[in-house]
Design brief:
Strand order of the largest sheet: 1-2
Helix content: 55-70%
Number of helices: 4
Structural class: mainly alpha
Distance between the termini: 32 Å
Shape: elongated
Number of strands: 2
Order of helices and strands: EEHHHH
Strand content: 5-15%
């Protein structure tokens, strides 16, 4: 199990970080009134990939994260 050090003291499993990030992305997408297909179109990815990110299965690259922030 991979761990990420947070605040130089707490080790948080990467799986949990991915799940939290995915939930945050899904929440924001819904606030914007977008379906996965439209969000995917805006960032040049597939709807399946967006779904994987939202479920915490795939971790987006730094460039994909930047694209998501700009939506």
């Amino acid at each position: 199990c991979k761990y990420t050090i947070y605040n130089n003291s707490i080790a948080i499993p990467e799986v949990i970080i991915m799940a939290i990030l995915g939930t945050m992305i899904q929440t924001k997408r819904k606030e914007l009134g977008l379906i996965q297909e439209k969000l995917a179109e805006k960032i040049g990815k597939t709807a399946g990939y967006v779904g994987q990110i939202e479920r915490g299965i795939s971790y987006p690259s730094y460039s994909t994260l930047l694209q998501l922030v700009e939506v």
